[in-house]
Design goal:
homodimer; 498 residues; alpha/beta; four-stranded antiparallel β-sheet; 18 helices; globular; disordered C terminus
């Protein structure tokens, strides 16, 4: 195909062949000149047209792919998929015409435009198996007991004196139960007054960032990290400084050149790598926060499920000076449909956090579930459920690890899974085979979670496998499909011809 | 008592006696130098000390009172009550020491410091009667039918395919039901795609403000208005320009000196005055929005309950060019504990609104209630409930209006109540008697909602009476207590000696 690209214009601007080609293509796609569904020229053709090496073209195609603009189909070529993003063309155009959003709104547009495309399982001839993250096993949930408590709260709802209908902090007995649970199971001594119920941990983290971070402020984070956190920082105009993660967790180095008011970490189980922050580094982080009057968000997203040994002490349990904000969630320990989480706040922030929440919600949401959950915790059902699920998840984790080790050890480096509900796998195969491998997985109806979007800047070739919601048969079949995908890898013109 | 005030310092700064005294006292109270519980000098004493008239001192005391810093106790004097605010001394001090909040956070502090004190019903010898706003009558709620639907959804919850667990816009069938309801009952033709479920209308309004308004931008509003809206504008650093309300609604005048991107109005029933926006003004507002590329938030907070005649056409039903964002809530039509509302968004804003919501919540809250409510609407139960409640609320409204007219006509100007769940009463009595009247009401255990906080700048002496949740006996007793309070008015040294 013939494709006119303003390549030379961008070459003048960027002074680098690869950048020029990338921006020329990206601008064309964004403007609609190269519309969704268009097949891009082969790397051979494009290389010839602009006097580039085919390797350069392939790098650019990879970069467009990682940003969700294009997709390669084995044996046919590279296609523009841009219109498949959430943001449809129409609203993008309206936006450009109206241009009425606030700076905050414009930052959301930026975030959205740079959002990676999540690959979808195609409905094919075989049942899809999705190793997606965030789902849990509900087949072992004590449905009968939970429903009984929910029924009770539904019956009471209309006659309840609406005392907690006015407390944005949430249902007081639930806050008590959480404080008690944290004391017993996580060694955190906290007053129920400092616990605030939220609609999932994302709400808590977004509000704290908004309370503390100005446009231009830098926030320290791990690399990789959960994309939602990065987006929350970008939404207020903050800059993300992402520090690498090694076997002991975040390698946080400060310089006099830059100071941080906020550090966001996942000490119990780094997301998504799964490594545990070493005790020495924990103490160093706390010391840093104290000396610099900074806050640390400890996102404890799934560490209730520790398969082996004793759970590490949370940062919060070591926090003597109110520098740590501890965030927990029930969406993983109960079920995904329950959007309840909590934040444990230092005294200095507690009132402001509540006031911030009230800007959006003067009243708490899901009050029936809050009340039923308080009963569920107080009657010991919650602890029993977690103990039971620990065993079940451990078995699944062991199976998945065993199969992957047996079958794919030569191409995958597997991170430890002594806790949590997913496994992080780094691709050890040749670099050019990773992308084709992911596409083969798609075609074989097995979905893995591409981990590259979790990185800021250079990313590792890696993916995550969430196994909590799958049974043993699905886990086994899923791995077998990956093995097959791996065998099929190769033969893709654009990539292989590098 | 002796009280040292930096009066002369502030007089130099402000050049006006009254302002100087006000700021000297306010600074003393805020800094803690004049602590909570302190009795302020009598107006006579203070006037003598600084060579002022007693009238000036009384005006200053009134101003401190209206901002929630002091409180007058009949026959004893004026007392500092500052520490009774939500914001306790400790966190204020920590704040001052730490001073780590973002600009957004600091604006919340400002808002909080200027928040008026809500008077509380004291538990006395008689049962308290509270004409508070926002509560509804649940004794006639179809509890049996609603609970049956809720039970059904509870049973399904753990096995539901979590399709809507991922749509921040909310449960699709509920969005369909709302679109249908709006079409049938409000004449609004809207696609379910443009309806987004929120956790109460405050969330919708706060997000829209955040999406559209930059620091320093002016937002046009009614005066008086709901304080939560004003706070949402102030939180993003926007300026509130409040336009007066007459018998036809907002008197919105634009000048070339100032342009607005956003106007927030309550056309169906002005909050809190209750007047209806005339058709001519509706058309003028729409025309203005079209010509100026501006948006209008139409907050339709309680107009489902129209006692007489046909409901007015909402602005949204006249909106041909996507300038109106229509906001509705179920907290008044169902029950207060159900924190569900919705926003109807123009195409140009719909995606950005959803993306904005996802910064805080990637998943919807209260999904069980969303599903049950969809069923409740689809089976006709919702419409039937509203029809029934209309009759019940009309009877209550007529009783309250009759009693107030009979008993207090000479001191109260009553605004029309052809819809809604509260009545707005302007004080016609002598100005100095209003404050003592409110305090007498408190002492007689009847709570009225002081309307002065709803004004920006000069406020009318007025209060609101929410009657929805009270039965006929309580309404009657409540009015009798007000009549008694009115008789008791007088004899307060600070005020009377003006």
């Amino acid at each position: 195909m013939e494709l006119y690209l303003p390549y030379y214009k961008y070459f003048e601007q960027y002074g680098h062949k690869s950048d020029a080609l990338f921006h020329a293509l990206k601008a064309g796609i964004l403007s609609g000149a190269i519309s969704a569904g268009t097949k891009l020229p082969s790397s051979r053709q494009l290389a010839l047209t602009y006097g580039l090496s085919r390797g350069t073209v392939n790098v650019v195609y990879e970069r467009l792919h990682s940003q969700g603009f294009v997709r390669s189909v084995m044996g046919s070529g590279t296609f523009v998929i841009y219109h498949q993003l959430d943001v449809n063309d129409r609203s993008l155009k309206l936006l450009v015409n109206d241009a009425e959003l606030s700076d905050w709104g414009k930052r959301l547009v930026e975030i959205e435009l740079h959002r990676g495309q999540v690959s979808q399982v195609q409905r094919g001839s075989t049942d899809p198996i999705s190793f997606t993250l965030g789902q849990v096993d509900v087949t072992h949930f004590p449905v009968h007991e939970w429903n009984r408590l929910m029924f009770g709260q539904v019956r009471e709802q209309y006659k309840k004196e609406s005392v907690d209908a006015y407390s944005s902090e949430g249902h007081a007995p639930l806050r008590e139960s959480i404080a008690q649970h944290l004391h017993t199971f996580r060694g955190i001594n906290v007053n129920a007054d400092n616990v605030v119920i939220v609609n999932g941990s994302q709400q808590a983290i977004a509000l704290i960032i908004q309370l503390l971070i100005n446009e231009g402020d830098a926030v320290a984070m791990e690399n990789p990290h959960y994309v939602g956190l990065r987006n929350a920082v970008h939404s207020v105009g903050g800059k993300v400084h992402a520090f690498p993660v090694d076997d002991e967790g975040i390698v946080f180095t400060t310089s006099t050149a830059c100071s941080y008011k906020l550090l966001i970490v996942t000490p119990s189980r780094q997301f998504p790598k799964g490594v545990v922050l070493s005790m020495e580094r924990r103490q160093r982080l706390l010391q840093w926060a104290e000396e610099n009057n900074a806050y640390i968000i400890e996102d404890d997203y799934d560490s209730e499920f520790r398969h082996y040994g004793r759970a590490n002490e949370p940062l919060k349990s070591l926090d003597r000076n109110g520098r740590v904000i501890y965030i927990g969630t029930f969406s993983k320990t109960m079920m995904q449909n329950i959007r309840l989480g909590y934040a444990v706040l230092p005294d200095a922030l507690k009132n402001w956090f509540t006031i911030a929440k009230k800007v959006y919600e003067r009243h708490p949401s899901s009050i029936i579930e809050q009340r039923a959950l308080a009963d569920f915790m107080n009657t010991g059902l919650y602890d029993r459920h977690i103990r039971r699920m620990k065993r079940i998840y451990r078995k699944k984790a062991e199976l998945l690890l065993k199969l992957l080790t047996e079958q794919m050890q030569d191409v995958l480096a597997l991170y430890p899974i002594d806790a949590g509900l997913h496994i992080y796998a780094r691709w050890k195969g040749t670099e050019v085979e990773f992308e084709p491998f992911l596409r083969c997985c798609e075609q074989l109806n097995v979905q893995v979670a591409d981990a590259r979007a979790s990185y800021l800047g250079d990313s590792e070739q890696a993916f995550c496998l969430g196994y909590a919601h799958l049974d043993e048969q699905q886990i086994t079949d899923g791995v077998m499909r990956m093995v097959e995908a791996r065998k099929n890898v190769g033969g893709v013109e654009n990539i292989q011809s590098n």
